[in-house]
Design brief:
Layout lengths: L5 H4 L6 E2 L2 H4 L7 E2 L3 H9 L8 H5 L6 H9 L3 H9 L5 H7 L3 H4 L12 H15 L14 E5 L3 H12 L3 E6 L7 H4 L8 H14 L2 E4 L9 H7 L2 E4 L5 E2 L12 E3 H13 L15 E5 L3 H12 L4 E5 L26 H4 L3 E3 L2 E9 L2 E14 L4 E4 L5 E4 L2 E4 L3 E3 L5 H4 L22 E3 L2 H4 L4 H19 L6
Parallel strand pairs: 3-4, 3-6, 4-5, 6-18, 8-16, 9-10, 9-16, 10-11
Antiparallel strand pairs: 1-2, 7-17, 12-13, 13-14, 13-15
Amino acid sequence: MGDSQGFLKYSRGDKRKQAVEERVHHFDEFVDAWEEPQYTKEAARCMDCGVPFCHNGCPLGNKIPDFNDAVYRGEWKEAFHILKSTNNFPEFTGRICPAPCEASCVLALHSDAVNIEHIEKEIAQRAFLEGWEKPVKSVDPTGKKVAVVGSGPAGLAAAEELFKKGHSVTVFERDEAAGGLLRFGIPDFKLNKEVVARRVSLMEKAGIHFRCGVEIGKDMTSEDLEATFDVIVLCTGSSVPRALPIPGKELDGIHFAMDYLTHQNRLISGVQAKVENRYHAGGKQVVVLGGGDTGADCVGTANRQKAAEVTQIELMERPPEQRITSNPWPEWPMTLTHSSSHEEGVERDWALLTKAFIGEGGKLTGIQTVRIEWKNTSTFEFAEIPNTEKIIPCDMALVAIGFIHPEHKGPVNQWKLALDDRGNIKTTGFQTSNPKVFAAGDCRRGQSLVVWAIQEGRQVAKAVEKYLEPVCVG
């Protein structure tokens, strides 16, 4: 630990963001790097705890006190090698991870946690600028061929780890470019797509093959895939959105959040040449249904598209400002959060049940809601409060209430893979009911974080490696 008094001397450094009135006019990233002294101070706040709970909070088990100490000493290359020992893609997690490591930082017991995420992002940035980040190398070729279906964070991590072991790896992606959710689901103002393309290019230079625009089960059958490769790893994500089966759901103006976000990402990349008015919020009264990260991404996108008004409503109660006794540290804090998108302008409301979509001439004009009182959140029991019905004017509704499971058409149905009670691919040690087929990421564990997807990709690679190990005789 470089400065044993650092956590007492320095307060948490806030991210340097471009002013709201400037950033809402573009889709570029708007969080800038600190000056060097601020990184030194922030790293000095790390207490090098006897039991670093941040390790447990991070799904990847990042060695946070170790790279913080290296940053404090100005040894950025050393910090990079420490970070890369557990995290394949720190340039992603340093931008879009909600930082569960910070929630379990011991300093958060009585003060503000170390700004771990911002330090991690700078380590990754310097690694690319200085040339420390290079294509991964593999051991001697094993002669084994592995197919990875899906190029999101889980698929990319699995591909890289398996390639290191000497296997020939081909990644199949049904979209026109690799990256999955990273490329098409997350807005550019949070994750510039050049960052994703840079990583994919590095993997291609290493020798990992990418076949984009190929949908397994349609353009290539699952049987052909199984006949061509020794192992298949499914990393197809959880892409079936949760719908609202209420009156008026067929009205024009109601869209799933991911369809909306994907359209904007394709416009920016140039793949989508023309704006589809149905997916553009300009001049519209927008209501976002759902209070999570995807909902916040819709808020930020709608503001940049110059929506007339943006409202975000949530079924659950308004979270408390501070932890309550039933939600102690180091658990994830179930407290009210204000994302950068919320800073840019939105009307937020909680404990509202959407009863129906209202329309005229087939077009959406409003959302009928009623306020509710929660009886038991664990059993999902609530009651409507009498005389609290209201109609929110709306001509664009974005449904961002999560995803239920992966798509079953294609490989899941063609291989007749076993499913769990939520409709996810059922596995034993990442292996599906077909011994040659493995699964990882959201398609296996359900909708989750990018950092969990990377960890799943790393873990499924270990399971595949064990499966491919030659049997010792004698």
